[in-house]
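Translate structure to sequence.
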């Protein structure tokens, strides 16, 4: 029996087109059907979890998860169902734990051993760790503090000292004045360091809470470069240039950034380096198969030899859209078929 490729979506949310699906979902379903592979979309509904599980276990060769966790009320239950589907042999695109691992902001601290992340990048999972390190980090350079949730620049703060630190000091005093710019809209707030750190505590204590502390990369003004990947192939590039106003560092559309669409060949150096790091990336992130559709965002920096280098800002693999480039649906379909083919070569008895 020819089993189906199941696309999971969730009803509602701002990411849907007039047909109720994400605009890039049906093109993938159609592209698979054109190639003789049956496919369908199911809406995850926690009340029908068992029914959905039984159906996909019986009829699904693979699932493709197309849910923005922000639109999902029962995230834990959804992930648990995906995990069980993977256990009973349905191919996970991606595995739920890969989704969590690649999508969390602490991907940065996990990848310190690669050349994609500066050494002085920290993840704080407790308020104590935050208090112990952040004043020292800020004494080194201007910083960016990132909360784990969202993808809209909310809770992503550029933090700068108002007055330079006195000579010889290695830790910023808690009463020092700081200038904080939020990536959501590039608005500026002035705080004392101590008060701002208290304000940030809920980012750490909330569900999946953490704060990432990373050096501010001034060349963000030249743009953030998003690589859209199909497993290990870069297929599309979005160049996002922040608004040309003082303090602006955000690459979100809402904040006024300008988008340009490029091809991976235009970013050869970045692509080559990233691909060379991929084996190490997959192993550091838990050894899962690479996600089907995912993105990696980079910022330009200058290395010790004065050459350009590219620093990772974040990755996403739970709800990557390609509505601006719908022809990619055919490449995605080919990639899905290749995954199924590889799996059947591995598991079928000789
Ligand atoms: N280390 C950094 N240096 C300079 N700008 C940064 C840095 N990290 C993030 N940014 C800017 O902040 C924006 C939001 O940060 P990001 O980590 O992408 O979070 P989000 O999930 O909200 O997109 C980025 O698109 C980029 O413009
Ligand atoms: Mg981002």
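Result:
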């Amino acid at each position: 029996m020819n089993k189906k490729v199941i696309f999971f979506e969730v009803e509602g949310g701002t990411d849907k087109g007039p047909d109720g699906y994400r605009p890039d979902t049906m093109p993938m379903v159609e592209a698979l059907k054109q190639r003789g592979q049956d496919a369908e979309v199911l809406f995850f509904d926690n009340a029908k979890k068992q029914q959905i599980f039984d159906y996909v276990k019986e009829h699904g060769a693979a699932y493709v998860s197309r849910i923005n966790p922000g639109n999902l009320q029962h995230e834990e239950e959804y992930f648990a169902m995906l995990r069980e589907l993977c256990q009973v042999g349905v191919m996970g695109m991606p595995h739920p734990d890969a989704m969590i691992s690649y999508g969390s902001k602490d991907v940065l601290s996990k990848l310190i051993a690669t050349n994609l992340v500066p050494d002085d990048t920290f993840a704080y999972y407790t308020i104590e760790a935050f208090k112990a390190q952040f004043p020292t980090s800020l004494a080194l350079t201007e910083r960016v503090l990132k909360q784990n949730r969202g993808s809209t620049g909310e809770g992503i703060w550029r933090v700068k000292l108002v007055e330079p630190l006195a000579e010889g000091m290695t830790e910023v005093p808690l009463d020092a004045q700081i200038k904080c710019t939020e990536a959501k809209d590039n608005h500026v707030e002035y705080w004392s360091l101590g008060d701002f750190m208290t304000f940030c505590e809920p980012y750490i204590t909330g569900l999946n809470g953490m704060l990432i502390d990373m050096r501010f990369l001034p060349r963000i003004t030249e743009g953030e470069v998003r690589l859209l990947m199909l497993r290990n192939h870069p297929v599309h590039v979005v160049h996002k240039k922040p608004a040309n106003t003082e303090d602006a560092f955000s690459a979100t559309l809402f904040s006024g950034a300008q988008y340009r669409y490029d091809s991976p060949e235009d970013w050869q150096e970045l692509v080559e380096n990233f691909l060379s790091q991929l084996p190490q990336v997959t192993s550091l992130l838990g050894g899962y198969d690479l996600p089907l559709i995912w993105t990696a965002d980079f910022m330009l920096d200058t290395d010790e030899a004065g050459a350009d280098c590219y620093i990772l800002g974040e990755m996403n693999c739970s709800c990557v859209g390609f509505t601006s480039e719908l022809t990619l649906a055919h490449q995605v379909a080919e990639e899905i078929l290749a995954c199924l083919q590889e799996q059947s070569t591995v598991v079928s008895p000789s």
